[in-house]
Amino acid sequence: MAQSKKWKESRRAFRRSLKNGWQTYKRSKIGLVGLGIIIMFVVMAVFAPFITPYTPYYTAPSVDIIRGDIYNITLQNSASWIYAPVGIMNYVTAPGANINLTSVLIYNDIGQVQIFPVGYNYTSQKILKIYLKSPTNYSIPKGITSLYETGTYMASFMNANTFIANSSRNFYILDSNLKVYRNFSLPFTIQEKSIFYNNPFIMPSVGQYSLISFSHGNETILYIFYNRQLNYFGMPQPIHKIPLAKLYINTSERVINSPLIYLNPNDVSNGYLNTSQIIIPTNNSLVSYGFNIKMDPGYEALGFNVPQVVSEPYVKWIVNYTDDHGQSYLPLSITYGYDWGDSPGIQSTVVVGTNTNEIIGYSRADGKMVYDKYFVVSNPSLKDYKLQALYPTNGGIIFAYATLGDRSLVALINPSKGTVQSNGTFYNVLEGALNSIPTYDVGSSRYITSTTAGDVYLLQPNMVINQTFSIIGGMKTPINGLGNILSYTAQMGYYYGTITNSGQLYMQETIGTNIAPLPPGKYPSENTYILGTDAYGRDIWTWLVYGSRAELVVGIVAALSSVLLGTFLGLISGFYGGWVDSLIMRITDIFLSLPGLVIMLILAASLGPNIWNIIFVIAILSWSGITRIIRAQVLSLKTRAFIDAARISGASKYRLMMVHIFPNVLPLTFLYMSFGVSGAIITEASLAFLGMGDPHAVTWGMMLQYLWTTGHVLDAPWWLLPPGITITLLSLAFYLVGRAFDEVINPRLRRR
After folding, report:
1. Which of the listed residues 216, 316, 409, 739 has the most CB atoms within 10 Å of its CB?
2. Is 604 contained in some domain?
3. Alpha-carbon span 424 to 385, nearest angstrom
């Protein structure tokens, strides 16, 4: 009972002491200002998700921070241009040579062609800009529905672009001036078509052959061209414009999809180019036809494999449309995939996308099933998607496209397993249906495609959206990858093009220029950034608010740790004296003489950039000053009469120290803790600015570090001033609280 009464009296005395202390504290105006600032930052830290519109990991969309080079030009007779523009490249055979976009071609079905030569220059910021020169007009046969630039290679290292084109019943070879060099009249109206030629943005580069097939009903015609002009002893041999062979195939069954052409220019043995195939999907089965190309022995002595004749096609294997479970399916599309262990151009697997959402792989050599997998992504909330098509990409990885209501689901497929890459995680959902063939952008190592929603997407290899583009004026034609503009200053721009609804030839660079940091304002995405963004597109206001959490934790925990350690050591040293005092004081002297910032940098670098390591470093190097102050106070208290009275009454050393002395030094502990918080906040900011901060933490110091490393100290005041001002304010607030608290514990200051 007596103990309970004593406890109640202690609590009343403590409350009375707090009340009296508060009455004294609130008379200090600077103390109230400091406390108000601290409360403001505490509110920011606690209610950060409600105060800011974004998370600290948010980055502004590319439409806000990326400015890709855009060039558009109004076309004459704009309504007539209904096909996507074609990029004309400059191909050379020199090893490692650049493949440059030299011209852009547009055409229509009434026989008109315009070719715009490409030029480029640099802005004052050394940014590559494209422009189109005055076009040259050409005439081609009417009714042409598709036109491709073949990328012909020449042994003379000269550009020799040729084109292949077709109408509904004719196939044309056009020379570099778009004159008809060969006209092949087809015996049927084209229903299915497939092309294999040297396209570095879609297929692995083989460079020597162009192949194109046309199908209708049960008939397929395959044209084979040797894609290299020979120039020996000053005698050009323009055989690249003459078809090497025209193969006629009657499948006896109706062709229902585009055939798949395979040719390996490196597989030469016994004078033959072997293992060439055309795989035709009919209404009942997948049929593989082989053909062999005999090499011309007259060129072998010169070290060249020049084709001479092509054998008649023969059936290699037939596969019925039955999956691994005995269920029937129909092929939606077929493509090749190859393992990274294969040589470039040697596709080992025929990959079929089915109407049953399966991806089935067959051995190209013998047609045996390699795998049968359902098209599955890792997100269980996505369902009811329908596989639509498979597309080949650079490197053999397969780009899969499925519809998901009015949206598109895109994914990357492992060609050797038939599954979505990385345990089903390499996928994304896009608005609208795909309306262009996905193209591999070799400049940025990204995939580019567009949708009916009017957006152009640049996708990373893991299918995360890298950038999103919106075409001004809308798309009348799907986008088409045009190619690269390269310069020897290591700048590169990959461009895509389209004809817009407003009748303009529109070109845009996919790599683009990062214009961040953004000043405060509203941007094309309709997002408003109150304090602008940093160079990475992160919202400054969001980082400022969330950064208050880390700063309060660092300041309070580091200061509390250091003053508790300093108080304990000062208490022990002052109370016991003797060798204990000497030992602690010599250690204290050593720490006081250390170059604090240098040691902090060394320790931070050794322990690693972690926020708790930084707190430890600050605490371990900040206790020595408070130790000396507490020791001096303890030495003074030991000589007081109330300590002698307690000792005479039989109090133990522990009781003397913890009950009679410690409560009297505690106000000093709190006082120096308030000063220590300011020091800890500034120290953390200094360490972060010098590159020793936690890169995963959201702190004001890291904001300044990113500002410094990105080189925007002088041109982004909206980024520089906020963290600098908040660090100053919060440090000043704790200092003001400390000054006011000093008046509470030191009556002589109040009398001044």
Report:
1. 409
2. yes
3. 14
Is residue 102 within a helix (H) or strand (E), and if so which, with residue range?
strand 100-107
Name the 3-class secondary structure at 72. Answer: strand
Q: Is residue 474 part of a domain?
A: no
Q: Does residue 380 sit within a domain?
A: yes
Helix, strand or coil for residue 447?
A: strand
Asked if 479 and 450 count as a contact pair (C-beta separation under 8 A), the reply is yes
DSSP 310-368: EPPPEEEEEEESB-TTS-B--EEEEEEE--TTSPTT---EEEEEETTSEEEEEETTT--
Whole domain around residue 557: which residue ranges? Answer: 23-60+533-750
Summarised one tens digit per residue, pLDDT across range 546-601 is 999 989 998 889 888 888 898 889 888 888 888 888 898 888 888 888 777 777 77
Q: Residues 326-339: pLDDT tens digits?
A: 999 999 999 887 54
Distance CA 220, CA 214 (A): 6
Which positions ≥6 away from 344 have C-beta within 8 Å? Answer: 204, 205, 206
At 197 the pLDDT is 52
pLDDT above 90 (res 401):
yes
Spatial neighbors of 39 by CB under 8 A, at least 6 apart, are: none
Q: Measured between alpha carbons, how far is 737 from 739 in angstroms, rounded to an integer?
A: 5
> Structure pTM?
0.62
Residue 657 resides in a domain? yes
Place of tokens 């007081």: 640
Which DSSP string corresponds to 120-166?
EEE-TT--EEEEE---EEEE--TT--EEEE---EETTS-----EEEE
695, with CB counted inside 10 A (0-12, 13-18, 19+), is exposed
CATH number of residue 393's parent domain: 2.40.128.630
Task: Report how far residue 49's alpha carbon sits from residue 57's, in angstroms, rounded to the nearest whole number.
Answer: 12
* CATH at residue 685: 1.10.3720.10
